[in-house]
Amino acid sequence: MIKVSILGSGNVATHLYRSFAESNEVQLVQIYGRNPKNLIPFEKEVSTCTRLEDLKEADVFLIAVKDDAIEGLIQKLKPGNAIIAHTSGSIPLSQSAKKNGVFYPLQTFSKDTPVDFKSIPLCLEASDKEIYSVLEKLALAISPKVFSISSQQRKSLHLSAVFVCNFVNHLYHIGEDLCAKNEVPFEILHALIKETARKASLHSPKAVQTGPALRNDQQSIATHLELLTNENYTEIYKLLTQSIQATYGTKL
Fold first, then answer.
1. For residue 212, with 0-12 CB atoms within 10 Å meaning exposed, 13-18 middle and 19 or more buried, which class applies?
2. Residue 167 three-state SS
3. What is the Cα–Cα distance from 19 to 115, expressed in whole angstroms?
4. Partner of 91 at 20 to 30 A CA spacing, among 3, 98, 106, 127?
5. Residue 183, SS3?
6. 137-180 pLDDT, tens per residue?
7. How many CA atoms lie within 13 A of 55 on its CB side?
């Protein structure tokens, strides 16, 4: 059984805690967080602390905090024989710890939205084979989807994730906003959203592109631009249209 302490109390930390708590191969030792209020949801089930000097011994210290706080936190730790691994998609292996690794779950997390870790890819990297083996065992305890990914590959993955998740979600917001302003239920678009994601998962997204930009439907494009009154939305529409047409050899 691997003994794990989680450093952090945000979205990623919360979901890792829930997943490890359900595994018979992982023993949760402690949750660390600077703000005592954020530790309240964990207190009944596991030991918590707000000071690094109060951390108990563990096999792995799993750091799930904001990217700009990771290296500073690692430098303050006195891990003993523990492995220090962070969960960031863009920060490389630490140079401040001898036994270090990366345990990156590639998914979007919100505290109140349940996720099934068995379907989540876990991207691992380690400073040596022995440490990788421990992290791999930890990963397999919660998900069968485990990948060895270098720091450079992980940066590219994180960038790709921003496009397919964060940017796409912002486009969902724009669509919802346009619906609301015209008193149309956003629910009508739910089936389209699901089918688009399904097709992108089954095929190359390039192969299943549709829409007026691809067809070079100038009349529809002009109508859409007339309807848009928000300058930011207009610029996004134009930029995406131009990108699609450049990809498929047509022009706006």
1. middle
2. helix
3. 9
4. 3
5. coil
6. 999 999 999 999 999 999 999 999 999 999 999 999 999 999 99
7. 28
- Structure-token match 């691809």, residue found: 214
CB 61 within 8 Å of CB 82: yes
Cβ pair 59, 29 in contact under 8 A: no
Q: Using the structure block, give the residue that is written with the tokens 């485990």.
A: 146
98 closest CA partner among 77, 116, 72, 70: 77
Amino acid at 231: E
**Reduced DSSP (H G I as helix, E B as strand, rest coil) percent helix, strand, coil of the chain, to 5:** 50, 15, 35
Nearest-10 Cα torsion for 192, 109, 83, 148: 10
Asked if residue 82 lies in contact with residue 105, where contact means CB atoms within 8 angstroms, the answer is: no
* b/e code 216-250 from CB counts within 10 Å (16+ = b): beeeebeebeeebeeeebeebbeeebeebbeeeeb
Write out pLDDT tens, residues 45-67.
999 999 999 999 999 999 999 99
Helices H / strands E in the chain, number of each: 10, 8
